[in-house]
């Protein structure tokens, strides 16, 4: 009974954290026209409001491991959430420069959560880690969906500043939930088991394969999120409104994909089979857009499921593959830093390819190639051997 109660408390806490880790990034985009006019913000600076957090994911992730060593992963997450709450609440009420600084701090706060949540789940959920990670990751999609849907109607009633400030509300709830959890738990020790190797994560080949898998998945997700409406409008003849709705469906179906990860891992022989399958589905999605854009509803649903399942699997592997939670802290930082560096570059490079070729087909086939790289990386990224464990003699 005590274990069930502890698991339930963990689920509540990670769901509240998950609800707060995407809204402050994605829901600022619908407010850009209003805030750009009000603050006389140039288009390049407005673009930083969505790209800065992604760059923080890549640059700050290694520093989160240092913070977690000093404060423990529970303490690091608490500090990250407090920073995120203050930055999200205060950034709308200053000028353009402080708005951008606040957005960078939003990215830093979210980065802390990105890195340490899988470590905490591995430590506290045990064998239930895949299930808890699926629920946690699905909360990302729910949170960004609620925030994106509510921010524009709120802006019409209370202005863009007030609407942007409401993005801090879920974070404040997460801060309270995590503070209660920290008080209920005694300590945050991450004890290194006797005989466990302490070699650098960068020396582990499987860590790099996992980083490659995660990076390709993240790049494909952010590229699709950035360019799918434009591609559907140009190749399938959709209106701007319909293309935007298609993107919303793409994100919403992703929630089902994240929840399906534990079942997929059971049915598809673990992380290896699931990774190969999800990489293959990415190939089908982009090939379908290139070859049969008229079937876009099918591709949007398939792609939505795939992106949710892919990120869910990536985070689950980060949680379950390290030899212990202490090693997992460094693995999570390394994989996410490398992965998000790739993700940050992807939409820009693909946009340049489209501008140079005038064709979305070229972009789609490059993405098919990235999906194929996921398939190649999956057997090592999803292997059964714990990363950091001694090699078998």
- Number of DSSP helical runs: 14
* Cα-based radius of gyration, to the nearest Å: 20 Å
Q: Uncertain segments of ≥5 residues (pLDDT<50)?
A: 187-198
CATH architecture of the largest domain: Up-down Bundle
CATH superfamily of the largest domain: MFS general substrate transporter like domains
Query: What's the helical proportion of residues?
Result: over 70%
Distance between the termini: 41 Å
Mean pLDDT across every amino acid position: 87
From N to C, what is the helix and strand string? HHHHHHHHHHHHHH
At the first level of CATH, the class of the largest domain is Mainly Alpha
Overall shape: globular
Number of strands: 0
Q: Which structural class is indicated by helix and strand composition?
A: mainly alpha
What is the domain tally? Answer: 2
Percent range for β-strand residues: under 5%
Transmembrane segments: 43-68, 75-93, 99-120, 132-152, 158-180, 207-228, 248-268, 275-292, 298-319, 331-353, 359-378
Protein name: MFS transporter
InterPro entries: MFS, MFS_Cyanate_Porter, MFS_trans_sf
Keywords: Membrane, Transmembrane, Transmembrane helix
């Amino acid at each position: 009974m005590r274990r069930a109660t502890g698991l339930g408390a963990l689920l509540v806490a990670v769901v509240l954290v998950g609800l707060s880790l995407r809204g402050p990034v994605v829901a600022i985009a619908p407010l850009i026209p209003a805030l750009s006019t009000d603050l006389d913000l140039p288009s390049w600076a407005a673009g930083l409001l969505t790209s800065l957090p992604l760059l923080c994911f890549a640059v700050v992730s290694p520093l989160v491991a240092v913070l977690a060593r000093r404060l423990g992963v529970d303490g690091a997450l608490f500090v990250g959430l407090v920073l995120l709450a203050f930055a999200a609440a205060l950034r709308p009420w200053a000028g353009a420069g402080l708005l951008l600084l606040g957005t960078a701090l939003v990215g830093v706060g979210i980065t802390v959560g990105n890195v340490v949540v899988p470590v905490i789940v591995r430590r506290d959920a045990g064998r239930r880690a895949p299930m808890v990670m699926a629920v946690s990751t699905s909360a990302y999609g729910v949170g960004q969906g609620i925030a994106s849907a509510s921010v524009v109607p709120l802006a019409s009633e209370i202005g863009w500043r007030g609407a942007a400030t409401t993005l801090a509300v879920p974070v404040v709830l997460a801060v309270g939930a995590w503070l209660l959890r920290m008080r209920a738990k005694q300590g945050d020790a991450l004890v290194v088991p006797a005989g466990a190797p302490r070699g650098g994560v960068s020396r582990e080949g499987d860590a790099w394969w996992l980083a490659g898998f995660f990076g390709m998945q993240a790049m494909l997700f952010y590229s699709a999120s950035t360019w799918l409406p434009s591609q559907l409008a140009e190749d399938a003849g959709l209106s701007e409104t319909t293309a935007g709705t298609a993107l919303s469906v793409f994100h919403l179906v992703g929630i089902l994909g994240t929840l399906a990860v534990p079942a997929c891992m059971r049915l598809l022989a673990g992380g290896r089979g699931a990774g190969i399958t999800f990489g293959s589905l990415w190939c089908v999605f982009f090939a379908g857009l290139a070859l049969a854009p008229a079937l876009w509803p099918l591709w949007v649903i398939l792609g939505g499921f795939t992106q949710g399942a892919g990120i869910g699997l990536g985070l689950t592997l980060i949680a379950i593959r390290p030899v212990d939670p202490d090693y997992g802290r460094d693995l999570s930082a390394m994989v996410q830093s490398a992965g998000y560096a790739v993700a940050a570059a992807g939409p820009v490079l693909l946009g340049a390819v489209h501008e140079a070729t005038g064709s979305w087909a070229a972009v789609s086939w490059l993405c098919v190639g990235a999906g194929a790289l996921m398939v190649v990386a999956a057997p090592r990224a999803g292997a059964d051997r714990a990363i950091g464990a001694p090699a078998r003699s």
